[in-house]
UniProtKB/TrEMBL annotation:
Record GO biological process: DNA integration; DNA recombination
Entries under SUPFAM superfamilies matching the protein: DNA breaking-rejoining enzymes
Name of the protein in its database record: Tyr recombinase domain-containing protein
Matches recorded under InterPro entries: DNA_brk_join_enz, Integrase-like_cat_sf, Integrase_catalytic, Integrase_recombinase_N, Tyrosine_recombinase_XerCD
Taxon lineage: Bacteria, Deltaproteobacteria, SAR324 cluster
Record family assignment: Belongs to the 'phage' integrase family.
Spans traversing the lipid bilayer: none
């Protein structure tokens, strides 16, 4: 398939891509009689060039549409000077951000820093897609201040003002690319960034940098054949919708999607474009979908991270035919197929395709689902919660409360890490049973006034009785002391910071990257989530009914009548039939000594400097 908006340029032994747009004849006068303009995609991974060019194409088409609305002219030189200043500020801003992140030597934290940058970029791009007026209003306020300081009349309806605003938005988006380039220590200079702006905006902002002979533009043809039994003329208007437009619409309808989840979803579904190009959704047929499944199975692990793979496009990576041990896992393949199938199901419902050819296409796994993540043995549980190890390395005496309590809460409840980390103090409640006795519980729910709290599934909403061992360790005393000592405190673990849609980052890093390796227990299949598997298996071995276990840990029952119509078990039933059964032993006569972990909470909390 040929893409007129994506062209290649050869420089010595390498080839890089440019985005090209042919200016419509009726608009040439607005572009100083230019008939074409280009934007360099140097620095963009070859496999991503096509996707980026498609996004740029949509932006440019919108610009042409704005111009045709018949707006007035404004001073081009004024616009150039404003943009030059903004470029200088953008470069300084990017350098400042990148230097701050490059001071982080820990590789895990560097990855997290990159995720923050990506998250901010996604939020802006999402706003441009779903609420562009809000973004424009924000830019308008900034431009109003600038234009007033230059004594320039503000005319928001003029052509050049809209061009200026559009250029500002482009610069903001370029900032993220520059920051990532700097964090990667790409060696690019400030002048390289200025050239990139000139190539993107085609306004000759920095004529002093012009001096290199441009290579002749060559037409690039995407290296694949698209086979389809349908003719373009036979497609309906909806079926003619491109994959990229469909993806944007699909994601925009997702409710409460975190930036991390959106990044994962978009990356997986856009592999369709890497495989077939941005074709009409209606052109996809069964043969193409089977080919897609076969090809992604051949992809190497970490294809966008490992140097030998990351500069190759999708088809080049597939053609490497790497050893099976170096390919993406069956789980990853199924995750990709799952996202794509969900997208195609939505496309079928909305009339973009007639059939979801990806339905039922997931691979059978060679291992049982229950074996995918190892549980901890009783001896490993004993080692994890051994007093000498646990007290010292959780640093509870230095007020690392979350490191101390989260594994203990999980091992006596099976709660997910984020469910524990996102608890508020008022989520610790007492429930009456039989009208007399009260049981302390964790109330796990989503709350409208607390957008930081979200549940994985509908069945995750539940009330979990607190195990007697946690109460013996002083958990309720700990909660009451927090309330008394700091009356404005809302969350149980206030020290945890929110990021990427959860509070788990610090605890996950402590337990998975530091504590388990220190104990010699870390494997590919063992992490904090293994505690949850441990609880489930522990109760199964004690012949606890699976419906009680599902209720405790927030799994659906797998029975449509129970899931849809069955009322949840009462708190006292879950407490007596399930929670009380959690009793870890290394042998029939030797229980694990958790009570040795009891702390003097009054002393620890009173010594805390708030």
């Amino acid at each position: 398939m040929t893409y007129t908006h994506l062209v290649s340029k050869k420089s010595k032994s390498s080839i890089h891509f440019h985005f090209r747009s042919i200016i419509p004849k009726d608009l040439i006068s607005y572009f100083n009689e230019k008939t074409v303009f280009q934007i360099s995609l140097i620095g963009v991974r070859n496999g991503e060039s096509l996707l980026l060019s498609l996004r740029l194409k949509r932006i440019v088409q919108q610009l042409y549409s704005d111009i045709r609305s018949g707006m007035k002219n404004l001073s081009l030189e004024d616009i150039k000077e404003i943009l030059r200043i903004e470029v200088r500020k953008s470069i300084l801003h990017s350098s400042h951000i990148s230097e701050g992140h490059n001071e982080i030597y820990d590789s895990m934290r560097k990855i997290e820093s990159r995720e923050k940058i990506y998250s901010r970029e996604i939020n802006i791009r999402k706003s441009l897609l779903t609420n562009s007026n809000e973004v424009k209003e924000s830019v308008d306020k900034k431009l109003q201040t600038i234009l007033e300081s230059l004594e320039i009349t503000l005319d928001k309806q003029s052509l050049n003002y809209k061009k200026l605003r559009s250029s500002f938005i482009d610069l903001y988006l370029l900032r993220f690319k520059w920051i990532k380039d700097m964090m990667d220590e790409s060696g690019r200079t400030d002048d390289d960034f200025r050239r990139e702006v000139d190539e993107k905006l085609d306004m000759n902002l920095f004529p002093e940098l012009v001096g290199q002979t441009q290579s002749q533009v060559q037409q690039v043809t995407v290296n694949q054949e698209v086979h389809t039994d349908q003719k373009v003329s036979s497609l309906s208007k909806h079926q003619s919708t491109s994959i990229s437009v469909g993806i944007d619409k699909f994601i925009s309808e997702k409710y409460k999607l975190t930036s991390k989840s959106e990044m994962m979803m978009r990356t997986h579904i856009e592999m369709l474009i890497e495989e077939f190009g941005d074709i009409s959704l209606g052109k996809l047929d069964r043969g193409m979908c089977v080919k897609f499944k076969d090809d992604i199975r051949k992809l190497p692990r970490n294809r966008s991270k490992i140097q030998q793979y990351r500069n190759l496009d999708f088809h080049e990576q597939v053609s490497l035919n790497v050893d099976e041990k170096d390919r993406i896992s069956t789980t990853t393949v199924n995750n990709i197929l799952g996202y794509v199938s969900s997208f195609m199901k939505w496309s079928r419902i909305n009339g973009f395709v007639e059939v979801n050819f990806f339905e039922g296409m997931k691979l059978k796994k060679q291992i049982r689902q229950r074996d995918e993540r190892d549980r901890f043995t009783e001896k490993e549980i004993k080692k994890i919660f051994q007093k000498h190890n646990y007290i010292e390395f959780t640093e509870v005496e230095n007020h690392k409360y979350s490191n101390y309590w989260t594994p203990l809460i999980s091992v006596f409840s099976g709660m997910r890490l984020n469910e524990i980390c996102s608890l508020y103090l008022d989520n610790i409640i007492q429930e009456k049973v039989n009208g007399r006795k009260k049981i302390w519980c964790f109330n796990i729910l989503e709350e409208p006034d607390r957008p930081d709290k979200h549940l994985k599934t509908l069945s995750s909403k539940r009330v979990v009785p607190i195990h007697d061992t946690l109460i013996d360790l002083g958990f309720i005393e700990f909660v009451e002391l927090l309330k008394k000592r700091h009356t404005n405190r809302q969350r149980l673990f206030q020290e945890l910071k929110y990021g990427e849609g959860s509070y788990i980052r610090n605890v996950s890093y402590f337990f998975n990257k530091k504590y388990l390796p220190l104990l010699g227990l870390k494997t590919d299949k063992k992490n904090f989530h293994s505690i949850r598997h441990t609880v489930v298996d522990h109760l199964k071995q004690r012949l606890v009914d699976i419906s009680f276990i599902n209720e405790l840990v927030g799994h659906h029952h797998g029975n449509i009548d129970l899931d849809r119509y069955g009322k949840g078990y009462t708190t006292d039933i879950i407490y007596n039939k399930c929670v009380k059964k959690i009793n870890y032993e290394t042998s029939h006569t030797r229980g694990i000594d958790f009570k040795s972990l009891k702390m003097d909470w009054k002393k620890i909390i009173s010594n805390r400097v708030w």
